[in-house]
Each structure stands twice: as structure tokens, then as C-alpha cells.
Write a structure and sequence with these properties.
Two copies of one chain form a homodimer. By secondary structure, chain A is α/β, with parallel strands linked by helices. The first copy, chain A, is built from 13 helices and eleven strands. Chain A folds into two domains: 88 residues, 2-Layer Sandwich (60s Ribosomal Protein L30, Chain: A), CATH 3.30.1330; 173 residues, SPOUT methyltransferase, trefoil knot domain (Alpha/beta knot, 3-Layer(aba) Sandwich), CATH 3.40.1280. In chain A, helix 8 runs parallel beside helix 9 and helix 8 packs parallel to helix 13. Chain A is elongated. At the A-B interface, helix 8 and helix 13 of A face helix 8 and helix 13 of B. Chains A, B: Belongs to the class IV-like SAM-binding methyltransferase superfamily. RNA methyltransferase TrmH family.
């Protein structure tokens, strides 16, 4: 049975509505430790997988997405009924349903404790859509975690959340950490650190050819894709500068067969992560 | 030596400026058979690889991108000097340099005549960024052509051109054709038609395991990724409906190892096209 907290909210100019809407901006997220999740697909995933503060739903959406509302009830979350105007004022992309969620980023120690075998590191990735697409690809490839370095986009940006298609809530995403801190820690935990860059000495297809037990343990040889691996992906415009490439054990290039200069960030990351996942089967 | 056609253009409200700017809209592209190419990276590629009508450049950009201007001179293209205001009025993304290019789409017969071994087909792909990213990935993977079906986005949309990062000019891109016409023609030319879809009976990794001569020629068995292949990729929101899946010889799924429901269109296409390219080496 659907039940709501308090009476229906009908004033789109209420302070409460403005406060929810303001979570689409970084400064309000930082002040409150909360963020906005818009639309049925993302709200469904955040309710199932992450820490949620409260939901706002229109009568029509409560009916249409009753599975989401009953998941929320099961988890004891407050669900507020609101008019179409109120929900639209909270987010133009709500389709009748928004959640206010609690920022609860994983830590690097959490990730290390899980004994990861595949990690994606985004170094200074600035575009919300690119970052989101890589998080989604990492989830699909079965990565254990994603790390975004200090200079990267805020993953709780609504555009990033949308691009992850729910994957932001599926695997640990660590943020706000310096690249050398991450690479040192993951290397100490036994992962090979591979930078993806067009300048790489190693061709990804060649590494796939020799991946497996025969190549393992020999640090002087080509990296073994079947071994635990952390991939480093650089900024969408300038890639990885020399001082970042030096933090990797090896630099690997995705082979370019046509006239293209490079792949875009998310497609390159997907090809690399799927190559590792294939080698690690 | 840099030389320009006529005097410097200085009036951003001139009819000529408006006419160039209007090419960012579909209707003017259809009326004139021309399209707008913005910014040094894309203009460099269109001058080298495609049919260009004329260029507009600021004095500063002519200096900075003198390689592009001398390429244009070599090809006998008219280069107009224009003020910063004029070029900015033609396109806010020009960075001092725009080209007016001639639409000269390849035909399916051109593609067939080239005896292609790897083709990407986009069925009803609507998002300009997604379509552009797939064209870029197809180029990088060494595909021979890309085909967009009737209901797809206009590839001469400025957002698509930007997302291709020049790849639109590197390989034949056929547009405005019904999906069954393309699949029939490519199958008749000896290509296997594989649809990429999460419902697929075949796992891409399993197909890579068995790709090669041993599997070839046996139509009842799993498709051979080493054989000439046309991949069909569906709309970013609803994928491939049943009547489109039926046009394929086999439906192949990219393995999903985490909690993600799917990959986004461009990353899925990149993983599939790179798998074919690897198997065809």
C-alpha cells in the first residue's frame, strides 16, 4: 500500500522546493552533503543501492513506478506526494520522481580491503558525460571500483548521474584523491598500473595475445592483462601529461587502424576495461 | 604565402554571414547541399579529406593555423579573411576558422564496390553526440564504412561533426537508407549481419574465443568474427525492436559482468567493432 509523509506539496515556490532544486549545484551539495537524483531509472537504482534521504513523487508517477515506491517503503524512506508543478520545479528532468540522496563516497581503504582486481582511475576528467559513461562502462566490465582524482568533475553533478545510468550506485566510486596516492596504494596492493595513452609502447591487442599464466610474474616483460590491474585514463582534451604517465608501470595504446587520431575517452576506456575483463576470465 | 579572396569581411550582420550561420540548421543544409565545419581541428580534416566550398578565417587564426591555410591554398580553395566578430557570428565554436563544405554522401554502391570487411550500421540513432562517437570509433577500429538509416540524426549537424573529431571525413558515411535495404545488400555481398543487443544468444567473448578459420563457412554454428561483418547498432533509448533484430543473421550481446543493465551506444559499438577488428587481423 502506498502511503505518503504529510499532505501533498503544491507550492512550487516553497523554500523546500528551492532547497531540493539547489542540490543540482555543486556548492549546495557540498554544504548539505546531499545530492539530487532525477527520473525513474536513476531513482530506482539509488533506492536499491545507495543511501537516500527522501523521495518526492507525483500521483501519476507513484502509480506508474509503484515498484520504486514500494522499494522505498521497504527501506523506510520518507516519500512525499507532490504536484506536477512542484516536482518539475525541483528538476526539469524528473519525469515525476526525484530523490534526495546522501553523499557517502567510498574511501580508498574500503576499495583496498575488497582486494580489487580491476580498477578504473580517471585523472582530471572534467566532462560530466564522459565521466558518467566511463563509470557505466567500468560497472558493465565488472570493475571493482572507480577512482576520480582531485581535479575531476563532481560525480554528483546531475549530468554525470544521468550518464552513469545507475552505475554510480552499483560500485564504489572514490573521489578527491591525488593520482600518485592512488597509484602508490594500488601498486602496493599488488595491482599493475597501466596508463591508456596513444603514445603507449604496448599495443592492447598484443597484450591480449600473451595474457595469462605464462607472462605472469615477469616485471621486465609486457604487462599481463590477466593480472590485477588499475587503468589510468586522462583528461578528454589533453590526455595524460608526462608526469602522470610516469606514475604508471606501463603505457598501453588502443590500436588505431583508420585515420582517426584517437578514440574518445569513454570508448577507449570501455575497450581497455573489456580487454582486462576478458583476460581475467 | 597567405593570400585571401577579396577584402576583409567586417560586417557581422551581412547577408553572407547570416547565410553561413544558417548552415548549422538542417533545412538550410538541405536547401543548399552545404554544411558548416567549425574550429581548427575539424576544418583541418575537412580540407584534407573532403569537398570544401570555401573558408573564413581571422587574421590571428590564419597565423596560428597556417598549415590549414596552406593546405587550402594547395587545393585551390577560396579563403576569405574576416574579422573576429564576423567569424564569431558565423559560429560561436569557430575559434577563428570555419569552412563551408559540400555534402557529398557516399552511396551504398560505392561501399559495396570497395569490398568492405567491416561496416557499422546505425539504426534510428537520434543523438548527435552518440552518432558522432560511433563514427569516430568505427574509423579508429578500421571499419570500411558507416551507414545511418533513414530515421537517424543528420550527420552534418554541428554536434555530430564535433563528436566525430574529423572521422566523418575519413571514411564513407552513407545516410538516408532503409535498414532492410542495407542488410540485404551487405549480406548479398558476403558480409554476416550481426545485431548488437543485450538479448543476444551469442556472447561476444565466446565468439572471440572461436573466431578464425575453424569456424568459417558453417552457417549453422556461431557467427565467425573473423569473417566480413556488418554490425547493427540500435537507438540509444530503445535499442533494436524485434522487427529490426530479425534482419540480422545473429544477435550478439556484450557481456555485462557488474550490475549495469547495458552499455551506452558508443561504448558498446566500440567494444564490438574492436572485437571484429581483432578477430580479422
Amino acid at each position: 500500500m502506498t502511503s505518503f509523509v504529510g499532505p501533498e506539496l503544491t507550492n512550487p515556490r516553497a523554500e523546500r522546493v528551492k532547497a531540493v532544486r539547489a542540490l543540482s549545484g555543486r556548492s549546495m551539495r557540498q554544504r548539505t552533503g546531499r545530492y539530487l537524483v532525477e527520473g525513474p531509472q536513476a531513482v530506482r537504482e539509488v533506492v536499491r543501492f545507495a543511501s537516500v534521504h527522501e523521495l518526492y513523487v507525483t500521483a501519476a508517477a507513484a502509480d506508474r513506478y509503484s515498484d520504486v515506491i514500494s522499494d522505498a517503503h521497504e527501506r523506510g524512506l520518507p516519500v512525499h506526494l507532490a504536484s506536477d508543478e512542484v516536482v518539475a520545479a525541483m528538476s526539469p528532468d524528473a519525469q515525476g520522481l526525484v530523490a534526495v540522496a546522501n553523499v557517502s563516497s567510498a574511501t580508498l581503504d574500503d576499495v583496498l580491503a575488497s582486494r580489487p582486481t580491476l580498477v578504473a582511475i580517471l585523472a582530471s576528467v572534467r566532462d560530466p558525460g564522459n565521466a558518467g559513461a566511463v563509470i557505466r562502462a567500468a560497472d558493465a566490465a565488472g570493475a571493482d571500483a572507480v577512482v576520480l582524482t582531485l581535479e575531476s568533475v563532481d560525480v554528483h553533478n546531475p549530468k554525470t548521474i544521468r550518464a552513469t545510468a545507475g552505475s554510480l550506485f552499483h560500485l564504489p566510486v572514490v573521489t578527491g584523491i591525488a593520482l600518485d596516492t592512488v597509484t602508490d596504494a594500488l601498486r602496493a596492493a599488488g595491482l599493475a598500473v597501466l596508463a591508456a595513452d596513444g603514445s603507449g609502447a604496448h599495443d592492447l591487442d598484443d597484450l591480449l595475445d600473451v595474457a595469462g599464466p605464462a607472462g605472469a610474474g615477469d616485471r621486465s616483460a609486457a604487462p599481463d592483462l590477466a593480472a590485477p590491474t588499475a587503468w589510468v585514463f586522462g583528461n578528454e582534451a589533453w590526455g595524460l601529461p608526462a608526469h602522470e604517465l610516469e606514475l604508471a608501470d606501463a603505457v598501453v595504446r588502443v590500436p588505431i587502424r583508420g585515420q582517426a587520431e584517437s578514440l574518445n575517452l569513454a570508448t577507449a576506456a570501455a575497450v581497455c576495461l573489456y580487454a582486462s575483463a576478458r583476460a581475467q576470465r
